[in-house]
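ok so I'm stuck.
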Amino acid sequence: MNTETTHGKSRVSLLDIVIKYRTIFILIILIAAFTIMKNIFVHPTNLLNMLKRMSYVAITAFGMTFVITLGGLDLSVGGTAAIVGVSLALMLGAGIPLILAIGLCLCIAVALGAFNGIIIVKGNVEPFLVTLATMNIFRGIALVSTKGRPVPIVSDAFVTIFGNGLIFGVIPVPILLMTGIFGISFALYKKTKFGFFVRAIGGNLEAARVAGINIDVVKLFTYIINGVFAFFAGLILAALMSSGIPNIAIDLPLDAISAVILGGTAIAGGFGNIVGTLGGALIMATLSSGMSLMGAQYPVQILVKGIVIIFAVLIDNAFKPKN
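replied:
not stuck anymore, here's the structure
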C-alpha cells in the first residue's frame, strides 16, 4: 500500500509540475517544431527580430495582467497606443521638443486610463462594455486628428532610442525596454501592497471590502497603470514605423489578453503571473514568427491564434481549483 501511495504521489507531483509550467512546455514544443520545419527559426537574427516585434505586445500584456487579475478587462489599449503615436508625431511636427512631447503623451495616456477607470468605478459599468466603447472612441480620435493618414516622425533620435537602436551593436532597444518594464511589473505585482490589493479584490471582492481595501482607488489606479503600459507600447510602435499611424495596433488588445491567458492568469481574476505572461507573449511571438517563415498568410495566423486561445481557456477551466 505504501508503494502504491508513493507512486500515486509521484504521479500527482508530475501532473502538478506539468500544469504549473505548462507555458514553458508549450513554448519548448513550438520552438522545437518550427526549428525542425525551418532551422533558420533559431538563428540569432531571427530570434532577436522576433523579440523586438513582440516587445510592445509583452509590455501591454504586463499591464493587462493587473487588469485581468483584478477581474477587469481593457479592450482600448490599442486605441491608446495609436493616440500616443499620432500625438507624438503631431507634436514633433509642430516643433515641440522631444522630451516635452513624450511627457505630454504620457499625460494623455494617463488621462485615457483614468477615463476608463472613472467610468467603470463611478458609473458601475462592466469593464468590457466601457472599454469596448472607448476602444472605438480612442481609435476615432486618432483617425480624426490625422484625417486617417500616417504622420511622419521627424526625430531620428526618437526612432533610434525607442525603435531601431542597438545596445552593444546587437540587442535592439525595444528588447531592453521590455526587460526593464518586466522587472518593474514583477516587483509591483509581487512585492507591493498594490499588487496584493489587486489580487485580493480579484479573488474575493466582498472580503477585500471588509478588510478595508479602498476598492475604487485600486481599480482606478490599475486602469491608469494600464494606460501607462499602453503608452510605452505606443512609443515603440511609433518608433518602429517611424510615424504615427492612426489605425495601428488593432490586434494589440487581443494579443495582450491572449498572452495573459496563456501565461496562466485566471480569467475570473484573483490570480496572475507576470512571468507566465512573458511566456505567453513569447508563445504568441513564436507562433507569428514560425508561421511567417512557413509562408502562412495573415488569415491563417489569426485562425491558429484563435485556436491556441481556446486551448488555453480550456486548460484554465480544466485545472482551476474545484470547490
